[in-house]
Design goal:
Layout: H1 3-9, H2 38-42, E1 50-52, E2 69-74, H3 78-93, E3 97-98, E4 107-112, H4 117-136, E5 141-146, H5 152-161, E6 167-169, H6 177-186, E7 191-193, E8 200-202, E9 214-218, E10 220-221, H7 232-235, E11 240-241, H8 244-256, E12 261-265, H9 283-290, E13 297-301, H10 310-316, E14 325-327, H11 335-341, H12 347-360, E15 365-372, H13 379-392, E16 396-401, H14 419-442, E17 448-456, E18 463-467, E19 473-477, E20 486-494, E21 498-506
Parallel strand pairs: 1-8, 2-3, 2-4, 4-5, 5-6, 6-7, 9-12, 12-13, 14-15, 15-16, 19-21
Antiparallel strand pairs: 10-11, 17-18, 17-20, 18-19, 20-21
The chain binds 5'-deoxyadenosine and iron/sulfur cluster (SF4).
The site of iron/sulfur cluster has 10 residues, from helix 7.
Length: about 525
């Protein structure tokens, strides 16, 4: 008998929410049961951004998690991973403990990604699967949060097809997790709290960081670019920057706590500071202050080529803890496609920017994101992308087949590119990506590189793995005590996407000069 048959043969109780007291909790909750709306998201509010510094767990929620466990499954980007850290921090402040065993959890959250259709399909598959656990334990609370919950169509599908889901809450509502949980414990209905209106920046949110070597730090939220294929501006709202003093304070604390690398996060980090009304302060200014903090490495992601200004390049050229690696999504090498994508730059602008970056930061590595098979993309346009890849000589790329997202302008375009042609293009592009990655890595054979050791290799316990400043993966044999340290490694062999080396010595932690 397999697991499914065993469960089916059990006498299972359906969730009996009607047993719970019906009570009006409106006095506790600022109820915002609005359905998410893409139309609303597009109306970018000119409202002032409010900063809240006073997040704390209200008295009424104290001890809510005593004796209860939570499990969060995260899909998608680093922003989502970081949101998971915040939600885990809130759970722990409420008294919950985390569990690695999903079927034993009292609360299960799926922190979802909406960027492509296959990301969404994975979540729907998992939701179907969770029904089994819910049958076994009707008290289990199941929640969907993250980008998918900002989509009207997703919320409707959950209402219709997944009645075992108890909570749906959006990316702007994470700080309301205690309220949402309390409501879910009390209510018979699905608790939906998705604000299509964003606008606030909330500081002092607790965080349960997943690692002790590298840490994520949000510098801004949202995106105002509205590239025609992209769902992010709808799911993450308008651009809002955190104040520099908050970011600098957080990085200082992380440095003092022994973290070795910071990844600054934002959907479009080069727009950092555009929304400040009281000062002229941009990403270059922020990086110039962060480089004075005594921490070995600082990175940022993701850049938009249009907002990448010369001051930022000038600051990055100062080096120190600012690494020589920039992730710079180009998406396409064809001016016609870039225009239809509404990327607001041309191939020539991109190449000019690359030249300026390369001239200012010798040996810099560039990585990128590319979408193939955009609606009506011609063979010639695709070949322009291949040619641009070669011209820039990217180190690595994340490559995707275009996936229509409901509500975005591109989803309405008629598309004459057959699916198998799209797949072939992806295949051809990936061959070029591999060729360049292999070439770049082969050039390192015999060299000594600095590696931040992150852990043991996925395949072998006695092999350690870490990344160079330029984000290249290195495997080498050494004792596990080196995990968390910066070490020198001599590169022996390059494969397509990683390096194999020999441990040389621990790098002395020199202070980064001011
Ligand atoms: N289809 C395919 N790829 C997409 N991306 C964003 N939206 C889509 C989409 N609809 C890719 C872009 C972006 C990366 C994070 O995901 O390349 O840079
Ligand atoms: Fe999406 Fe990035 Fe374009 Fe913003 S800049 S709309 S996040 S692809």
């Amino acid at each position: 008998m397999n697991e499914e048959q065993r469960l089916a043969s059990q006498q299972v109780n359906q969730p009996k929410k009607e047993d719970k007291p019906e009570k009006d909790y409106s006095q506790y909750f600022e109820k915002v049961f609005t359905a998410p709306s893409l139309k609303d998201a597009k109306k970018r509010g000119k409202e002032e951004i409010k900063y809240h510094k006073d997040f704390n767990i209200a008295e009424e929620f104290a001890g809510m998690g005593e004796g209860r466990t939570f499990y969060i499954r995260t899909y998608g980007c680093q922003m989502n991973e970081h949101d998971t850290e915040v939600m885990a921090g809130i759970f722990m402040q409420l008294g919950y403990t985390s569990t690695e065993i999903i079927e034993e959890a009292d609360v299960v959250l799926l922190n979802t990604c909406a960027i492509r259709e296959n990301a969404e399909n994975k979540v729907f598959g998992e939701l179907g699967f969770l029904l089994k656990y819910k049958r076994k334990n009707p008290e289990m609370l199941i929640g969907v949060c993250g980008c998918m919950s900002q989509e009207e169509s997703v919320v409707n599908k959950i209402l219709k097809t997944y009645p075992h889901v108890d909570m749906v809450f959006g990316t702007h509502n994470i700080h309301r997790l205690p309220n949402i949980l309390k409501e879910a414990y009390m209510s018979k209905e699905l608790v939906i709290e998705v604000w299509s209106k964003e606008g606030d920046v909330i500081e002092n949110l607790p965080k349960k960081r997943l690692g002790s070597i590298k840490a994520w730090v949000n510098i801004m939220y949202g995106c105002d670019k509205f590239c025609t294929y992209c769902i992010v501006p709808y799911t993450r709202g308008k651009e809002r920057s955190r104040r520099p003093e908050e970011i600098i304070g957080e990085v200082r604390e992380l440095a003092a706590a022994g973290y070795k690398e910071i990844m600054l996060l934002g959907q479009n980090v080069n727009a950092y500071g555009k929304d400040f009304e009281d000062m002229e302060y941009r990403l270059g200014d922020l990086m110039d202050e962060l480089r004075k903090i005594d921490i070995p490495r600082i990175r940022f992601t993701t850049s938009h080529p249009r907002d990448f200004d010369d001051h930022l390049i000038e600051v990055l050229a100062k080096g120190g803890n600012l690494v020589e690696h920039i992730h710079l999504p180009v998406q396409s090498g064809s001016n016609e496609v870039l225009k239809i994508m509404a990327r607001k730059y041309t191939r020539e602008h991109f190449l000019g920017l690359v030249d300026r970056i390369k001239a200012a930061i010798p040996g810099v590595t560039l990585t990128t994101d590319i979408i193939v098979g955009y609606p009506n993309e011609t063979e010639e346009q695709f070949e322009e992308t291949l040619a641009l890849y070669r011209e820039v000589g990217f180190d690595m790329a994340f490559t995707y087949i275009y996936s229509p997202r409901e509500g975005t302008p591109a989803a309405k375009m008629i598309d004459n590119v057959p699916e198998d042609v799209k797949k072939q293009r992806l295949h051809r592009l990936n061959a070029v990506v591999q060729e360049y990655s292999r070439k770049a890595l082969a050039g390192l054979e015999g060299e000594i590189v600095e590696v931040l050791v992150e852990g043991t290799s996925k395949r072998r316990e006695d092999v350690l793995a870490g990344y160079t400043r330029k984000n290249r993966l290195v495997n080498f044999k050494a004792p596990a005590e080196l995990i968390g340290q910066l070490v020198s490694v001599k590169i022996i062999e390059a494969t397509s996407y990683s390096l194999r080396g020999e441990f040389v010595e621990v790098v002395k932690n020199e202070k980064v000069e001011a």
